[in-house]
Write a structure and sequence with these properties.
By secondary structure, this protein is an alpha+beta fold. Helices cover about 30% and strands about 20% of the residues. The protein has helices spanning about 20-30, 35-55, 60-65, 80-95, 160, 230-240, 260-270, 285-300, 330-340, and strands at about 100-105, 110, 120-130, 140-150, 170-175, 180-185, 190-195, 200-205, 215-220, 250, 270-275, 305, 325-330. The strands form 2 sheets. Strands 2-1-3-4-5-6-7-8 form an 8-stranded mixed beta sheet, sandwiched between helices. Strands 10-9-11-13-12 form a 5-stranded mixed beta sheet, with helices on both faces. The structure holds 2,5-anhydro-1,6-di-O-phosphono-D-mannitol and magnesium ion (MG).
Length: about 350
């Protein structure tokens, strides 16, 4: 017999810290914590695992479902973004931690259905962002944010959804790529977890992510060049103009799925932008479940996010699906973009 417990000293779960353990440890340190927040994260992470598994079989499922939307098991073949939406809604509402949800795929706020009790949080999400990338095996992702409810009790409402990004309690994204990753930001910083398919868990792989103050990459759909305002064109011309002393020209990278373009920007630095153009008067991206959550992640990692004139997190939302211009990434690169765009002619 030995006096040392055979399971070892208290510490991280072996072979690493799971997402659930990470959130739980941080919640335990908060006075008055009830476990609701950890519970909500468990539901989101379960949904992410289910969606990730489906995404990785997407080509096969599509092949099997070619004739008449029914696969060989006789099941309806759903579009993946609808499948992702329904998976998140059913995982999360059953947990009892939210009172209402907002989704890119659903016109109105999504109430929590009977028999599930309304909880104290509000979840907003884009279930499968960049879903056009599925057909070409490129990365796609899920984006989410969590607010506390504003209405005092009962079913949640639109009022609970229309909250500025600065009041987000936690936000993050899941990227379905060469590996699946879950990145979340809360009061304790920004942390990334990589999915181990053999164990079926997300394990901490990127602790306390900090975005570089300046990068060397810009990310934008430059096919829209002639649809932009002159200030926007001026900034892109400037960032491409050789200036060895200041590290220009920057390299250009654009996957066309914001989660993937943002993930690279977060890790390597630089800037991602979706400005207004003649087709998209207010930009293309949606404030509540695309721009706001990623702006929260970016600021928590030391970066910045602007709509061209002010902080994205300070925009007061007026509609569930409203759009906003977005310039997000390294603090110095976002400041340069706003300065050059707004310079007098
Ligand atoms: P989606 O929510 O319909 O997928 O659209 C959002 C996506 C972003 O992921 C991406 O940054 C952008 O649309 C790409 O748009 P574009 O093809 O105009 O460059
Ligand atoms: Mg989207």
């Amino acid at each position: 017999m030995t006096s040392i417990p055979s399971w070892g000293p208290p510490g991280p779960t072996l072979p690493g810290t799971t997402l659930e353990r990470h959130v739980l440890d941080r919640q335990r340190a908060m006075p008055g914590a009830t476990g609701d927040f950890t519970g909500l994260f468990q539901q989101i992470s379960l949904a992410a695992k289910i969606i990730g598994s489906k995404v990785h079989k997407a080509g096969l499922t599509r092949f099997l479902g070619l004739t008449g939307e029914v696969n060989v098991q006789g099941e309806q073949v759903q579009k993946l973004d609808i499948f992702a939406n329904n998976t998140i809604v059913s995982c999360v509402e059953a947990g009892g931690h939210v009172c209402v949800m907002g989704s890119e795929e659903v016109d109105e706020p999504i109430p929590v259905r009977d028999p599930f009790p309304p909880g104290k949080y509000v979840l907003q999400f884009d279930p499968l962002d960049g879903s056009g990338n599925i057909d070409v095996n490129a990365s796609i992702g899920t984006i989410f944010s969590i607010h506390r409810r504003k209405t005092p009790s009962g079913p949640g409402s639109l009022e609970d959804c229309l909250q500025p990004g600065r009041d987000i309690v936690a936000a993050g994204y899941v990227i379905y790529g060469s590996s699946n990753m879950f990145v979340y930001a809360a009061a304790g910083g920004v942390h990334g977890f990589t999915f181990d398919p053999a164990v079926g868990e997300f394990f901490l792989s990127h602790e306390n992510i900090r975005i570089p103050k300046r990068g060397r990459i810009y990310s934008i759909n430059e096919g829209n060049y002639n649809l932009w305002e002159p200030g926007m064109r001026r900034w892109v011309d400037w960032i491409k103009r050789p200036d060895a002393e200041h590290g220009r020209p920057y390299s250009h990278r654009y996957i066309g799925a914001m989660v993937a373009d943002f993930h690279r920007t977060l890790l390597k630095g630089g800037i991602f932008a979706y400005p207004p153009d003649t087709k998209h008067e207010h930009g293309k991206l949606r404030l509540l479940y695309e721009a706001s959550p990623l702006s929260f992640v970016c600021e928590m990692a030391g970066g910045a996010a602007s709509d061209g004139s002010g902080r994205v997190l300070d925009i007061e939302p007026t509609a569930l699906h409203q759009r906003t211009p977005l310039y997000i990434g390294s603090a110095d690169d976002v400041a340069d973009a706003v300065r050059v765009m707004n310079e007098a002619e």
